[in-house]
Design a protein that fits this description.
By secondary structure, the protein is an alpha+beta fold. It has helices spanning 9-18, 39-42, 48-58, 61-64, 154-163, 175-179, 192-206, 239-252, 291-299, 314-319, 322-332, 339-342, 360-373, 375-390, 397-406, 411-416, 433-444, 461-465; strands spanning 67-72, 79-81, 86-96, 106-116, 123-129, 132-138, 142-148, 165-170, 231-235, 258-264, 270-278, 284-290, 306-310, 489-492. It contains 18 helices and 14 strands. Strands 12-11-10-9-13-14 form a 6-stranded antiparallel sheet, sandwiched between helices. It has a 4-stranded antiparallel sheet with strand order 1-8-5-6. Strands 2-3-4-7 form a 4-stranded antiparallel sheet, with no helix packed on it. The longest helix is centred in the C-terminal third of the chain and has 16 residues, at 375-390. Bound molecules: 2-acetamido-2-deoxy-beta-D-glucopyranose (4 copies). Residues 1-32 form the signal peptide.
Length: 528
């Protein structure tokens, strides 16, 4: 049950790229000078500032999509295809016994590239399973190998046996983008090294301080002091989810990566509502679980979570309609996690929302790869949401992009059309972790009199904790959780949580529909 996550689109993409591996095989061997030189081939070696505008002029959005060249599985022998640089390519996959000692084993991908059309050209490939994405690029005609030391889990091994490793040919202009993300890699390691990488990353890119807290790191919670509507802000710093959260924090400016909400029933029992809770089948859904179960899972979570409890202000709590909150929460319980609106929650100001080197082309590339790997999630996650934005039905990604282009809508613009809370997808309403909580707040009347002009899917986690709705009098915080150092309650964690601008912005109509968010300061204009 430790797979809880919130998930925001950009982090998801970066995660896709760096989930667990990255192969680099830089072999700039000189080639005979008998092939022609082409300007386009030089793009990857030019600085990004030069190459990207050129590239963007050369291609339409559709051309930027990675092309799927095939899947290679051990049983299936060798696959061959034509690249853009090398016309003659082959790949085969071999399972190896691995180095972990638990017999999961790994694999080696053997690639042969031949018949380059020019001596300056290269082919850039992404190799993917739903569990990892690796990439590599080739300048030379020869045999290359790409090693996968160990499959991440038995499910990955099983997937590769059945479906193989997917190979995508990328626009070579993507190289700069991929290279500049290299320092993101160690974030996903479930080791002390990985944790330190996350901490260093957040310190460097967000100015986080990570001050150690004195023991005990875990509070003895008194359920009587916790109320319906109290917000739980969670920050993970280790392993796959830690790395995922770090990227998400970086792109959204939030100092927490996941959220949940406290709800009390008529008998005074405490429950936790959470979107992104992993059920027994490994699906991420919206769930309401008892406090004891939730807390026990938090305590044994290997991602080393830091957890803060943000109690509602007494005046807000007085406004909180618990009946309506429960009605909404129950109506959502069991629904799938909000894959649809995940992508769109914060891409709301053109150009201003992607920290370099992410940009909308990369976003679309990764999403289209995801569509290939996990058709059941991804097709509806992306295609349905984009169809809603265009007012079309059941167009595939390629057709959506073509249709947008026909109407003169740019890719950036298409991605920034705001999500509407009342959109219903084929598998139900879609809410991410924080949209679920704010949906409860909206139902409970906290945003009155602006409820009808608040789209909760526009809020990031940071937008949620900067709302001015929480307890602002330190002396009223429960004694079991507050050491006077932070204006909220920290109930778990080795490091002191920071929530910059906590509890400062009063709700207003059309809140957060046009807010930029760019590191390192994430400056937010008033009333955006
Ligand atoms: C193996 O090859 C067969 C026939 O070409 C194809 O139908 C199947 O999808 C391939 N399997 C994988 C895992 O690529
Ligand atoms: C919680 O209770 C345990 C045992 O009763 C105690 O050792 C620990 O110090 C307490 N923690 C806090 C934060 O009070
Ligand atoms: C609280 O919500 C319920 C259900 O939506 C509604 O029937 C009730 O009138 C609300 N109570 C108040 C005080 O607004
Ligand atoms: C904070 O709460 C305490 C206890 O309820 C109260 O005495 C005090 O006046 C409050 N302070 C402010 C600034 O409201």
């Amino acid at each position: 049950m430790l797979g809880r996550r919130c998930g925001s689109p950009r982090a998801f993409l970066a995660l896709g790229l760096f989930l667990l591996g990255l192969g680099l095989d830089w072999v700039p061997v000189a080639q005979p000078l008998k092939v022609p030189l082409r300007v386009k081939d030089l793009l990857p070696v030019l600085p990004r500032q030069v190459s990207w505008p050129v590239l963007n002029n050369l291609h339409s959005a559709v051309d930027l999509l990675p092309s799927f060249v095939g899947s290679v599985a051990p049983e299936n022998g060798t696959i061959g295809w034509k690249g853009t640089c090398f016309l003659d390519n082959e790949a085969r996959l071999e399972f190896t016994s691995g180095d972990r000692g638990d017999d999961l084993g790994g694999g080696v991908l053997h690639l042969k590239t031949d018949a380059a059309h020019s001596w300056t050209c290269m082919d850039l490939y992404v190799f993917a399973t739903p569990y990892r994405i690796m990439w590599d690029y080739y300048f030379s005609t020869r045999e290359h190998t790409l090693e996968i030391k160990s499959w991440e889990e038995p499910a990955e091994l099983e997937y590769v046996k059945q479906h193989g490793v997917a190979i995508f040919l990328m626009q070579s202009g993507m190289l700069g983008t991929l290279l500049s993300l290299i320092d993101v890699l160690p974030l996903f390691s479930n080791t002390l090294w990985g944790q330190n990488a996350n901490i260093a990353f957040l310190k460097k890119h967000m100015g986080a301080s990570f001050e150690k807290r004195p023991q005990p790191w875990q509070a003895n919670i008194s359920v009587a002091d916790v109320h319906s509507g109290d917000f739980l802000a969670i920050s993970k710093i280790r392993g796959r989810w830690g790395g995922f959260e770090s990227l998400e924090k970086w792109v959204t400016g939030a100092f927490a990566g996941h959220t949940a909400i406290c709800l009390k029933d008529e008998d005074g029992n405490l429950w936790v509502g959470e979107s992104g809770h992993e059920n027994e089948k490994g699906e991420e859904i919206i769930a309401i679980v008892s406090w004891d179960e939730w807390w026990a899972e938090a305590l044994k979570d290997s991602s080393n979570p830091q957890i803060a409890l943000l109690p509602l202000h007494p005046d807000v709590r007085a406004k909180f309609n618990s009946t309506a909150a429960w009605e909404y929460a129950r109506s959502m319980s069991g629904q799938p996690y909000g894959y649809h609106n995940m992508i769109f929650s914060w891409i709301d100001t053109i150009g201003d929302n992607y920290p370099p080197p992410l940009d909308s082309n990369l976003v679309i590339s990764i999403l289209s790869m995801w569509t290939r790997l996990q058709p059941s999630y991804a097709a509806n996650m992306l295609d349905e949401a984009l169809n809603k934005r265009l007012g079309t039905k059941e167009l595939s990604l390629h057709h959506i992009l073509a249709e947008a282009e026909r109407r003169g809508i740019t890719l950036d613009h298409l991605l920034t059309i705001p999500e509407q809370d009342d959109w219903v997808y084929s598998d139900g309403k879609s809410t991410t972790c924080v949209a679920f909580i704010l949906g409860i707040y909206k139902a409970a009347g906290i945003f009155e009199p602006f409820s009808s002009s608040i789209q909760v899917t526009e809020f990031t986690i940071r937008d949620a904790y900067t709302l001015r709705i929480y307890e602002d009098n330190q002396t009223r915080l429960p004694r079991w959780c507050n050491d006077g150092k932070v204006p909220f309650c920290q109930i778990l964690g080795e490091y002191r949580m920071e929530l910059p601008e906590y509890n400062t912005i009063r709700p207003y109509a059309y809140m957060n529909e046009h807010c930029p968010s760019l590191p390192p300061t994430y400056e937010r204009p008033a009333n955006c």
